[in-house]
Amino acid sequence: MSNPFLEKIEPFLLSDQKIVQEFVLQALKEYPLTPAEWTNRVLEMALHSEERRIDLLLGCNQVL
User: Residue 2 — left, alpha, or beta (φ > 0 → left; ψ -120 to 50 → alpha)?
Assistant: First the structure.
């Protein structure tokens, strides 16, 4: 990956902090070149985190 924006935001993609992850998902919603792999990673996290599932799925829905 040679995109500076994606390189800076990737470490926060799967953050345990809800507000950070909401910010990242919102930023990716506005960014047209979000890798499909990232959506898959967030969906996997949603499958394994029952308490965060709804937030993550809503965030992914906005990014797609």
Answer: alpha
Average pLDDT over residues 22-32: 84
Domain assignment present for residue 51? The answer is yes
Does residue 2 fall inside a structural domain?
A: no
The residue segments making up the domain with residue 28 are 20-63
Note the pTM of the prediction, 2 decimals: 0.67
Residue 44 pLDDT > 60, yes or no?
A: yes
In the chain, the number of structural domains is: 1
DSSP symbols for 1-64: ---HHHHHHGGGTT-SSHHHHHHHHHHHHH-TT--HHHHHHHHHHHHH-TTTHHHHHHHHHHH-
Residue 6 lies in a domain: no
